[in-house]
Every structure is written in C-alpha cells, then in structure tokens.
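Researcher: Predict the fold of MFS transporter.
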Amino acid sequence: MAQKETNLEQLYDYLNDEEDARSCKAIDEESCRETPKNYFLILISNMLTSLGDTLSNPKTVLTWIMSYVNAPVMLISFIVPIRESGSMLPQLFIAHYIRKRAVRKYIWVLGSFLQFLAIAGIGLIALSFEGTIAGWLIIGCLIAFSLARGLCSIAFKDVLGKTIPKKKRGKLKGYTSSVSGILVLAAGLFILYRSKDDVGIEFYSYLIFFASALWLIAALIYANIKEFPGATEGGKNGLKEAWNRLSLLKEDKPFRNFIITRSLLLCSALTAPYYILLAQRYVGKEAYLLGLFIIANGVASIISAPVWGKMADKSSKKVMTYAAMLTAGLGLIVVGLIQYVPGLRDQVWLYPVALFVLGIAHQGVRLGRKTYIVDMAEGNRRTDYVAVSNTLIGIILLITGGLSALASLISVEVVIVLLSVLGIIGAFKGSTLPDVE
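Model: Structure tokens for MFS transporter follow.
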C-alpha cells in the first residue's frame, strides 16, 4: 500500500511540476498530506460527471430525444436555460445550509446521486411516454437535475479550496477537462458510427442511462476524499443572510467587477446553439452532425484545457480575456464568411470547425473564471462569492435565454454578432480585474 501511495505522490508531483518540498499554499499542513490522493479522487469523479454532462447535453442529445418523442418545440426551447439557470438560482439560499457543515464533501455526493436519479428518469420517460406528457416530464426531471447540480457547484469549489493548494487548482481542472475530452471523443465516434444505422429512441435512451450511471459512480468515488472540518460560522437565518451577502456587490468592488465580466463572458456558452442552427439551415439535420459536433468539442478540450489550466494558475484574468476575444473574433469571422462568401454556407466542415474553435474559447472562459473566483477568497468568503455569483448569473441567463425565442424573429447571424460584441466588452472588462494569484 505504501508503495502505491508513493507512486501516487510521484505522479502528482510530475503532473504539478513539484521538485523538492511540496507547495501547499492556502491550505493547512494536515490537508497538505492528503493532497495527492484527494487530487486524483477529484479528477476521476469530475471526469465522469463531465462525460455524463456531454452525453445528456441539452443542446444536442436531449434535444434529439425530445424530438424523437414528439415533444412540443416550445418545451424543447426551454431545456437549455432551465438546465443552466436552474442550477444557479437557488445557490444564494443553499449556501446558508452548506455553511453549517464542517465537512462538505457529502453535499456534493448527495447532489451527484440526485443527478443520477434525474437523468435516469429522463431515459425511462423517453421509453414510456410521447408528446406533451413526455416533454413536461422531461422538463420536470431537468429541473430536479439542475437543483441537484447547484448543490454540487457550491460544495465542489469549497472542497477544492480546502483540499487542493493554490497554483494546483487550474491544472487540476485542465487535466480533468483533457481526460474528459478524450472520453467525449470516443463517445462522438461511437455515435457517428451508429448514425449509419436507423437508430431509434432505444439507442438514445440507453445512452442516457449510461450517462446517469456516471454520476452514481462519481458519487461513490468522491465520498472517499479526505476532507478535514472547516469553518461553520454564519449559520443564521437563511433569507436574511442571503440578502446580507448580496451586499457584497456594493461593498466589494473587485467582486462586483468580476460579476460584470462573467456576465459578459456568457457569450461563449450562448453562441454554440446558433452555430448548430446555422448548420441545420445550410447543411441539414442528418444524424451524423451530432457525432461531428460532439467530436469537435472533445478535441477542443483535449487540446486546450491543459494549456488554459496552466495559464490560469499564472493569471486567470488573462485567460478570461484571451478566451473572450477568441469567442468574439470567431463569431464575427463566421458571420462574415456566411454573408460575403456564399459558397461556404453549405460546406459541412465549416460548422464543426467553428464549434471546435468555440470549444477552445469556452474552455478558457470556464477555467479562467472558476480559478479566479476560488483564488479570490478563503473559507466561507469563497462560499459567499460562489453563491452570489452563480445566483445572479442564473437570473441573467434566464433573461438572455430569450434569445433562442428571438432567433425566429431576428436572424441568427445578428444574434451571433451581438454576442460577439458582448465578448469584446467582456474581454476589456476582464483585463481591468486585479490579479488574485
């Protein structure tokens, strides 16, 4: 056993460029001794949930399933904003209860188990129901999934801050995304291969069942993390405490500017569906496109995540800035090509390539902002930052989610240009943020 632990530590040191004494910035000595084991437990569990996210992605797989069961288009249009904002909106109030827990890994375990149940429920519904009833039941499962996801979001960042030192967190996220990207690539190739056959709802339901199982396995792995008791101050009236924490926006200028920047950087997440809409308009809705888009995202993660992660440990605000500029530049180029080079509109390669570049940019935005907010504060302050940030972003997501409905009235190209402009503003705002490393 000791030899195994030694090998684990050596692998940890290799991945994090440790030479002599292990660096444990911002965590105590007791937690430092457990860092190598915790590092890989977090990596594996989050690798599994990342693959599960891809295989139940509302922009691709869930849309495919709801179409197969003939759910109303109106309900299909709600699944992306519900999944994203539903996990963020309750966090301001959930954080109050999480603060009372000296050990918070079990909050993540509970959230992961509930996500397993919710996604498995979608698979069962797809096999058993059709039409409007199926659509509403899937929406209900998705709401439950999103609320459970909110539990994991707060708990993960807090456990990460307690168990993994500064200067190692960005690389951990980067390696997680990279390994997940390899698995996603394999899944995309499998879907691309199966698209040659006349696949039905059973295939997509079994895909969902497999995705749900990944959350169950991840919960079992995450439960083995060695987390020592932490601060539990602030366990007062939830509503009152929530409003008090909102005062951070007024009192804490760096945090307020981060919220503004993060809101503008939503462009990287919101642009993706419009590239898919363009592909469907100019190329078609053949099933093989699903595999191509999944492969594009997987390759983007493999290539970019470790690079963004290392850059984030040096300057997470620069990562956000560069990624936002890449998102904005890509959007303007794609719209320009479609408008002024008509011969490229019906080229199949254009849209997966665009999604590939956007995937690289979005990885940078995600790794940059997550590393930045974890490094901004210690202890319960970190929990407050995450809760307030995610709740406000959830509200903003619901507002901007209306863009999907407006896309039928405003051209898709115009929406992409507007999001690109927001990305440019976000890049400028991000460059003015203070360094926190």
